[in-house]
Amino acid sequence: MAAIKYRFLPIVVLLITSINVFAYDRITGESFASRSEVIAQSGMVATSQPLASQVALDVLKSGGNAIDAAIAANAMLGLVEPTGCGIGGDLFAIVWDAETKKLYGLNASGRSPQSLNMDYFTAQGISKIPKFGALPLSVPGAVDGWFMLQERFGSMGMDELLAPAIEYARTGFPVSELIAYYLEVNQERIGHYPGFSETFTINGKTPKKGQVFKNPNLASTYEKIASGGRDAFYKGDIARTIGAFVKSQGGFLSYQDMLAHYSEWVEPVSTNYRGYDVWELPPNGQGIAALQILNILELYDLESMGRHSAEFVHTFVEAKKLAFEDRAKYYADPTFNDIPISELISKEYAKKRQALISPNHAAKRVDAGLNDGDTIYLTVADKFGNMVSLIQSNYRGMGSGMIPSDLGFVLQNRGEMFALEKGHFNQYAPGKRPFHTIIPAFVTKNNTPLMSFGVMGGGTQPQMHAQIIINMIDFGMNLQEAGDAPRILHSGSSSPEGDIMTDGGYVSLESGFSVNTRRELMKKGHELQDVVGAFGGYQAILYDAQEKVYYGASESRKDGQAAGY
């Protein structure tokens, strides 16, 4: 296939002219594996950017625990990967606490402005919340999430944890390849907003790969948080600056909204897949979609189908469609809705849904089953046995494009994901958390920790969570191979924003799937489209209790690194 330049669009739809499958020249493991797993005894880190991994590893080596290291890594990622995360966004985490031998879930997502209501959208003739600008803003919850984690589980002060990111922000760091690409993409779509050029460019151009970049404004913001705590962000000058800036841009997010923010500890929920307990967080996130997919697929002998067969791909896609129809109808802020989580993730319900899957025909439309309504992921494990699964995002890469004066970060546009349909579970309301795509995951076996993992990338995430589990349990792959394996992505399902699938959507396959598999899928009625950059980014840590060692894996499609000691 001729070389193609992909510019200014993060996801590019391609016409398939030919398909080449390239095997890596490795003497062991699957042909598609990009590298071996990282194995270490005392601690393990996996993030989407090597400098962030090294910061987390330094924290572990200096005596900090996994929670400390995760916070330090997340702060660093907000600097070195602003195209996926930052303190203008939200955070979710699952923590295995070695002392209590229990999983804890944290929902640190923010709420919509109290002064904005449905009447405004109706009066303005707006039927869908815009992607960028001041209207899709919600309160950024990440900083409160840091302090919730640090106060309950941390062992180091926030000043120590933010110090590495502050130093890098002032002295600079060389920009990595994918980040340079996505900065250029974002300049095209949000570069016209105030503050972008001053914050994210060098002489008006986004930094190129290897170019040293500084963000002194973010360093100053981090210093205020380090010395003043969460109140510096939600009650002090930072909150006032955000409120004043948003007002100047015609938005509604206010100082009072910042002042009222709080995060919540939540109970993770699980399903047992072939003897392994897979854990997700409940809505307003989409994690239970992965559990619904796994429950349906557990009813099939996937191993006998073969990982790259049309039969497996078809079955997976049809199960995904069913789960995502429920996602579109029911997944929303549980404070405003009675969400039937236990029914949705039950084995009995999965059997009813499985009966709707035809082995030979792709469904064009499916209905919800109950009838009563860009991102970073990181994981850290320490010598004490603690493990953290953490995901954090601005949404749409660099969020809304709203960059509060001299603060060095972008505010998220997560409010875009509200529906403007009256009566919808995810209907916009003041002080409500929008539907969320970012989801951390965890696996336990016999009530002991086994695996902390996540895959970034919007609606990709539940699909890839399920595929990682299936790759390891049904197809016997190791931790790195499970992430490197060619992925299946279905797009076009009904959505929590009110979109309805009527044409069956379309299937995208990475290059490891054969022409014959693609042909057979088309015979079953699937539309195939090739895309670039849409298959997510994976990090994972697995604990071998018998040998007492950690295995780490990092996404070969990103700039990331797994590292241990």
TrEMBL record:
<keyword id="KW-0012">Acyltransferase</keyword>
<dbReference type="GO" id="GO:0006750">
    <property type="term" value="P:glutathione biosynthetic process"/>
</dbReference>
<comment type="subunit">
    <text>This enzyme consists of two polypeptide chains, which are synthesized in precursor form from a single polypeptide.</text>
</comment>
<dbReference type="GO" id="GO:0006751">
    <property type="term" value="P:glutathione catabolic process"/>
</dbReference>
<dbReference type="InterPro" id="IPR000101">
    <property type="entry name" value="GGT_peptidase"/>
</dbReference>
<dbReference type="InterPro" id="IPR043137">
    <property type="entry name" value="GGT_ssub_C"/>
</dbReference>
<dbReference type="InterPro" id="IPR052896">
    <property type="entry name" value="GGT-like_enzyme"/>
</dbReference>
<comment type="pathway">
    <text>Sulfur metabolism; glutathione metabolism.</text>
</comment>
<keyword id="KW-0378">Hydrolase</keyword>
<feature type="active site" description="Nucleophile">
    <location>
        <position position="375"/>
    </location>
</feature>
<keyword id="KW-0808">Transferase</keyword>
<comment type="similarity">
    <text>Belongs to the gamma-glutamyltransferase family.</text>
</comment>
<dbReference type="Pfam" id="PF01019">
    <property type="entry name" value="G_glu_transpept"/>
</dbReference>
<keyword id="KW-0317">Glutathione biosynthesis</keyword>
<dbReference type="GO" id="GO:0036374">
    <property type="term" value="F:glutathione hydrolase activity"/>
</dbReference>
<dbReference type="InterPro" id="IPR029055">
    <property type="entry name" value="Ntn_hydrolases_N"/>
</dbReference>
<protein>
    <recommendedName>
        <fullName>Glutathione hydrolase proenzyme</fullName>
        <ecNumber>2.3.2.2</ecNumber>
        <ecNumber>3.4.19.13</ecNumber>
    </recommendedName>
</protein>
<keyword id="KW-0865">Zymogen</keyword>
<feature type="binding site">
    <location>
        <position position="458"/>
    </location>
    <ligand>
        <name>L-glutamate</name>
    </ligand>
</feature>
<dbReference type="InterPro" id="IPR043138">
    <property type="entry name" value="GGT_lsub"/>
</dbReference>
<dbReference type="GO" id="GO:0103068">
    <property type="term" value="F:leukotriene C4 gamma-glutamyl transferase activity"/>
</dbReference>
